Amino acid sequence: MHALIFLPWDDSERYLYERIIAPRFPDLTVETVGTLDGLKANVARADILMSFGVRLPRGIFANTPQLKWVHAFGTGVDGIADQETLRRDVLITSTRGIHGPPVAEAALASMLALSRDLPRTVRAQDRRAWDKWRMQLLDRRTVGILGVGAIGEALAPRCKAMGMTVVGVSRSPRPCAGFDRMVARAGLDRVVGEFDYLVLLLPLEPDTRHIIGDRVLAAMKPTSFLINVARGGVLDDAALVRALQSRQLAGAALDVFDQEPLPTDHPFWGMTNVIITPHFGGYYDRYVEDSADQLCRNLQRFLAGRVAEMENVVERA
């Protein structure tokens, strides 16, 4: 059986998964490729394909006669489950349960960076300028967390520890530790005006695509900040550009985008009130080891024919 890993990373990290997986499964052929040409040349003989869904080109599953299982190294399966050429009998799994602390810390770091205008500090340092200004506090501010899953549950108590009021916004509101109250997602545009910070954490699904657009952004306070560490598609980037240019809100920290990599001519690059990071909010120093442990448990079950026992199987609509 042949497992193909597609990771268009730099060479120093590309083979980390292969080095962990191959020794544990000597009867499994494990191959890593880092280019689209390499992927296209080898995918037809793969029984298992492992990658980040957002890295896979459209139509890649058109010629995959042996494919039985696709594993996403990230939480999201956009780029996999939404591909029309992927056969219905192909199993899909994702990496879940490890992203709570890193993404929660990324969101909190973004909130602190925006409140203290750390980009302005770096620019002043580049000019060797002794500039000073009054910082804002997170203490006694209100944060709205849109998407109350494992990451939201990890972020809420961290925000409470900073003295914040925490409001969860969920499709199906339920009591949850760390939140002061919950509201229904259907009423987001009516409550978003209370928030000093709006953190996006919900998955990209048909009903969440561009859920944050002109109407919601117009309802936010002009002193508020938006943080997106979810998926690029949940935020209408063009609408956010308009909102920032018209001063409808104070700034944003963005880790994900409608188009990735973010084009070099995109307006976000030139905005001093926008912090841009390259979709690494959930990636941390132990990510490969933690996600590989989860993957190896599934490999063991898959190769033993115990598919019903596999973790994080994605139900296809």
**Averaged pLDDT:** 95
Helix share bin: 25-40%
CATH architecture of the largest domain: 3-Layer(aba) Sandwich
Low-confidence stretches: none
Structural class of the secondary structure composition? alpha/beta
- Total count of strands: 12
- Which percent band covers the strand fraction? 15-25%
Task: Give me the CATH fold name of the largest domain.
Answer: Rossmann fold
Classified in CATH, the superfamily of the largest domain is: NAD(P)-binding Rossmann-like Domain
Largest sheet properties: 7 strands, parallel
> Roughly how many Å is the radius of gyration?
21 Å
Note the gap between the termini. 28 Å
- SSE sequence, one letter per element: EHHEHEEEHHEHEEHEHEHEEH
Strand order of the largest sheet: 8-7-6-9-10-11-12
How many domains would you count in the coordinates? 2
State the helix count: 10
